[in-house]
């Protein structure tokens, strides 16, 4: 078992967390904030758009089971990487599409993934590759949001099921046992 960490921002962290929780080899997914200038920001501060942080997820994964490249492909297929500073109705730099590599190897893999995934999109991918920086775990009520409150939240009910459907359609072989394919 070789545990590594991947950090992705793909809009609302509730939505990206829900996707990666179903992937084989993923040990844990934590929602948080990265890429800004304020120490230990709150959700309210980040949502205000003035801290420079992105809502992001930190994925701990077993690279003997799933590769970083596979995680990147899942990332690119379950959000729209062509939207600058937004995902759907979430607008602002806090919702940007970004990758925060943990090593030079991850940075090279991220650059290769952008090239590899570009043909799947009609517009240019605008995902940024940013330096790994201080990580701030989001408040406890944001963790595992889809599994709890999210399934009663109209926003989540509109946004997350289509992402999960894309995951199930394109990456069925990468799903954890017991994850429904429908």
Concise synopsis of the structure shown:
The chain is α+β, with helices and mostly antiparallel strands.
Please report which band the strand proportion falls in: under 5%, 5-15%, 15-25%, 25-35%, 35-45% or over 45%: 15-25%
The CATH architecture category equals 2-Layer Sandwich
How can the largest sheet be summarized? Answer: 6 strands, mixed
Number of domains: 1
Overall description:
The chain has 182 residues and is α+β, with helices and mostly antiparallel strands. The protein has one domain: 2-Layer Sandwich (Peptide Methionine Sulfoxide Reductase, Chain A). 30% of the residues lie in helices and 20% in strands. The protein is built from 5 helices and 8 strands. The chain has helices spanning 13-20, 43-47, 68-77, 104-117, 154-170, and strands at 3-10, 26-34, 54-62, 86-87, 90-91, 97-99, 128-129, 136-137. The strands form 2 sheets. Strands 7-6-1-3-2-8 form a 6-stranded mixed sheet, with helices on one face. It has a two-stranded antiparallel sheet with strand order 4-5. Helix 1 (13-20) packs parallel to helix 5 and helix 3 crosses helix 4. It is globular and about 40 Å long. The mean pLDDT is 95.
């Amino acid at each position: 078992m070789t545990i590594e960490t991947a950090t992705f921002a793909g809009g609302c962290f509730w939505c990206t967390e829900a996707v990666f929780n179903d992937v084989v080899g993923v040990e844990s997914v934590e929602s948080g904030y990265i890429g800004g200038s304020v120490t230990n920001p709150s959700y309210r501060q980040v949502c205000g758009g003035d801290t420079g942080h992105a809502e992001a997820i930190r994925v701990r994964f077993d690279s003997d089971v799933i590769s970083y490249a596979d995680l990147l492909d899942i990332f690119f297929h379950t959000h729209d990487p062509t939207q600058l500073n937004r995902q759907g109705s979430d607008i602002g730099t806090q919702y940007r599409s970004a990758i925060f590599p943990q090593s030079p190897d991850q940075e090279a893999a991220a650059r290769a993934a952008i090239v590899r995934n570009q043909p799947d999109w009609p517009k240019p991918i605008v995902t940024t590759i940013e330096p790994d920086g201080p990580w701030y775990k989001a408040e406890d009520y944001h963790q595992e949001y889809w599994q709890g409150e999210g399934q009663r939240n109209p926003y989540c009910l509109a946004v997350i099921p289509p992402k999960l459907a894309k995951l199930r359609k394109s990456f069925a072989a990468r799903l954890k046992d017991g994850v429904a394919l429908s």
